[in-house]
Structures are given as structure tokens and as C-alpha cells.
Amino acid sequence: MTRQIRLALRAYGVGGPGQHHLWKDPRVPRNASIDIDWYIAQAKAAEHAAFDALFIVDSQFIDATYPPHYLNRLEPLTLLSAVATHTRHIGLVGTLSSTYNSPFNVARRFASLDHISHGRAGWNVVTSLDSGTSRNYGLDEHLDYATRYGRALEHVRVVRGLWDSYEDDAFARDDVFLDPAKLHALDHAGEHFRVAGPLNISRSPQGQPVIFQAGVSEEGRHLAAQVAEGIYAPTGTLAASRDYYADIKRRTREAGRNPDHVVIFQGAQPVIAGTDEEAHRLSREIFEADNDFDRKLGAFGRTFGAHDFTQYDLDAPFPDVAALAERSGRTRGAEIVRRAREERLTLRETVLAFTEYQPSPFTGDPRTVADTIAEWFGAGAFDGLNLGFRTHEDLERFVGDVLPLLRKRGLARTDYDADTLRGNLGLPIPENRWAAA
Q: pTM score, two decimals?
């Protein structure tokens, strides 16, 4: 059977990174990020087009420099539980931090979403980029990378163990309600967690929610190879995307897992117009509408633990702030510091260099965009696209003009293959560990 492109929709409401002025667009409801009806409409449109999943990002620290959507948004699992009752097929993937949540609570909440949606839940495991989150949870500082990712790996394994608390046929519901021999306590005692169990909710039609992950650091890639079934990969060049894809598949194989059971989604925000020239003009206009240096300077600090860069002379050498990224955006922070030092950039030049105009590779008329998607897919850059659109009209244009071209080539499906997220992603149902034993 022809390999087909998986599609996910990430919904940013009134505007995520690089979209600080999107809320002013009259096509975008001013309260979109807290309007459940807006999310339901997005999910229904994506489901009508047979998208695999709706993806909800999240973070738990803000200051006034953050994008509008970050400043006022719904909690992911609450949001997705509401969307679940208005949809039937599309997967529902929510972001939840392994650093600031307990395994039992995470296991119960996602298992509940999985039942509410009849097997469509997915957990995007993050360790939290924003170091300021620690202060919202009573900690003086964010955990270091090694601790965060060691904790994340154990966290996922504990959650999966709790999801196996009941064997599939534990509830007889004939002479007895429950066969007690098929209920199992976890009794986990590890480096970071002690969890007795069992979980008080049965397995869903897909066995367990699908585990997603989005790290790009060395620790993040290791975690992905160990536990991820879906990955949200960073947007980059074709060469960088191919390298990332090959690296994750290699690591997965070396971890003793089937690389085909890890679906890699490339982040993408297509810009589509009647002609290539018009699309590139529109892309530039979108960039310039948000090309405010003071705003970019404020946002630049997120990588360095929400550091305030306005205190420095803009035309002096880039300040020595490398240590501030060690517990925050270390990978990107190291690249910023390295380039600033090697090229002897000032603070102003550094900010401009890392926020310069870079059009989406998926920019052009519908045929150009479809051709580029097909080229990247065929070149081994991704298994699917994690699509972001500025407006609902942009989503409709992709669905109406680009998707049919991909379908004609057999690269995108016209309907769902299964009733669960696992089934539609081609992922196996995990065998219950106790039944297997």
C-alpha cells in the first residue's frame, strides 16, 4: 500500500510565536484562545478532511512579552474533553509536563480522555522549556536537563504501568463485576517516583493513549527513541529535516523498537495564494506586520529563562548569558551564544540574525505547495505534517486546494482507516504487561 502523509492541526487561537498581532485580524475572534466553540469548529473542519489529530500546545509560565495565545488559553485536557464530545474520529493530543505533574494524575486524566473519546487520546510529553514555571510550583529553580529527562523517562514508564492496571477482560460483569486476579498494583519504587497503584480506570479501545514527544536536544532525542510513538519535529530546511528524521529512526532501532512505530510530524505553516509571486508577497507582508524589534527583544529572553535583555546596550557585544539557558532552552541558547561569539555580533545584530525573515518552504500556489510537500515526504523528511494556520480560511484553502492534489497522487487519504488514533496512525495496540506475563 502506498505510504501516505499523516496530518495534524495545531490550533493557536489569537496567535502563537511570531503572531503577536494576529488578534487584530477581523477574521480571528478576539477570544479564540478561550472560546471552546472556536476549537470545536477547527476540530470539525480538520476531521472533515480526515486529519489524524488536533494538537494542543501548552506552557505554564508567562510574562507580558509572550504571544497573545499564551497569555489567555484553555487547559489542554479540559479543552480536548469538550472537543471529544463533538467529534468522532480525529485524534486529541494534549501537552502536559512530566516535570510538574505526578504520574498517577497524568495517567488518570489521559485515560479518562481516552474513554471519553473512545480511544483517540494522545499525550505530548514535555519537560517544560520555561524555567520560570518552577516558581509557580514552589521551586526555586527549574530542574537541570539530566534530571528533567531522567524523570520524564521514568514518568512515562510509570504512567504506562498504571494504564495496565486492569487486563482487558478484567470486568466480567456476569456473576461478578470484576475478576480480582486481573487487577494489578504497580508498586513502583524508582529514582524519582514511588507509586503504588493500581489506577482506577480500565484500558480503552486503543489500549493506551499514544505517547508524543517534541524534544530536539540530545536528551530529548534519547527520550523519543525510548518511548515516543509520535514526534513533533522542528521546522527547518529539507536537509536538516532529513537528518533529524534519520537520526530519530536510527536511535529508535538501536533502542530495540520498530522505527515504523514512530510517526514523525514536521511543523509547517503553509502560505497559499493564487500564484507563487502572490504567496511570497503575502508571506513577506505577514512577517513585516509583526516585525517589531522591541517585541522581538522581549521574546528573545524566553530561551534564557525569561531573561530581560532590555537592560543591555543593544550595540555592545552579546552579553555572557550562556549559563541562563542551561535549565531553559539549552539547545537553541547554545546556538545563539556560539554564533554571536564566532561572528562577534552585538545584541541587536544577534536578535536580528535569529529573527530574520524565513519564508515557509510550503509557500506558493496550491500546486507548488503540494509539489513541495510531496518532494519532502518522498525525500524522507517526515511521516506527516503538524500544520498551523493563521485563520480558519487558511485551513479551508489548504483542505480545498492542496489536499485534493495530494490525494490524486495517493499521498493523502480521503477517509479514516480506523476508529482510534492508534489505528489511524498505523500503530499497534500495546499488549497488557500482566496478560503477556
A: 0.94
